Sequence to fold (359 residues):
Amino acid sequence: MLTQYGWSDGLQRDFAPYAAQGLKAGRVIVQQRGGYRLITEDGEADAKAAGRLMKSPEEMARPAVGDWVAYEPRRAPEPAFIQHVLPRATAFVRKAAGRGTHAQVVAANVDVAFLVTSLNTDLSLRRLERYLATAHESGARPVIVLTKADLADDVAARVAEVEAIAQGAPVLAIAAKRGEGLEAVAAHLEPGKTAVLLGMSGAGKSTLLNALAGTERMATGEIREHDERGRHTTTHRELVLLPSGGLILDTPGMRELALWEADAGVATLFSDIEALEAECRFRDCGHDREPGCAVRQALEDGRLDPGRWASFQKLRAELAHERRKEDPRAAQENRRLWASRHKTAKAWSKQKRGFGEDE
Ligand SMILES: Nc1nc2c(ncn2[C@@H]2O[C@H](COP(=O)(O)OP(=O)(O)OP(=O)(O)O)[C@@H](O)[C@H]2O)c(=O)[nH]1
Ligand SMILES: [Mg+2]
Ligand SMILES: [Zn+2]
Fold:
């Protein structure tokens, strides 16, 4: 059972010390306000997490959907008791508001991030850039999915527009309700690999999941007529095993995606701009009135889109602001995440060269 959900030799090694303590391994498949649901060797089980994890000032210490955990089995109807979260290979982290800002793990251990946006409402390239930067930062591979192609008439033009900011991420147009474009999405799903659906409410995330699953696994909801926004139909996060063997994680719509320490993600997404900056005559060029400024030159001769430049400046300023009020504990957690992500990245590049996933 766990193998179907992505259990690997690497996880087995990480889990060994907990196994020695008599704990069992499971993966969080549902996360909602009241608690968790795990997939275990013996099927599904309700669970709650140790107070030590839940009360940690670091929200990232709490189990999130997609996490592998070590738990203590309890006799039903007592929920299983989550004691430890195994190191995350990847994590999609956003900045959440509340009592002070903090990092929140939206989904853990995902291989592919489907960034879902609808073609029937205003297509916001700037919003997509935020999602792309966060996806790059997470360690997951981003794939942009433009939904409701049946409601748009200039699909090819919109795809081209998005491709221009995607920096090589695949851009797919689909009409899930008619079953169009599903194979292209399915091509990014593999047995034992996990994908997450991310995007605004009403974008069609759950509809896509249902189309891939071949059944109404998740409830879907009509969008509001007056502004074409969704109604926040999905209210919990859930990981679903598809008949094809791929795993897909549905999430509630996110209105705002605030960046959390996504410096590397922003750098990846805007590597073209960073290359331009390197060509400026002065290393500390402010791209304002300095002579020999390659950025201004590119803006003038149309090689750099002004909207893209503005977006880059905005995201970079946001991150710099964040860093100034950085909480040292959060920074430490982030470094830990980076270290494990580095491992994953290495595994991936090996995989690309044909060495298989495990070291
Ligand atoms: N015409 C058309 N409508 C679609 C398509 N995909 C989804 N919809 C509709 O869009 C509405 C919202 O779909 P959902 O799948 O519930 O959206 P969601 O992204 O899961 O929304 P939240 O759960 O609120 O985050 C529903 O009325 C769907 O029927 C499509 O391909 N074409
Ligand atoms: Mg939904
Ligand atoms: Zn410059």
About this structure: The pocket of guanosine-5'-triphosphate (ligand 1) is lined by residues 147-148, 150-151, 175-177, 201-207, 220-223, 230, 232-234, 252-253 (CB under 6 Å).
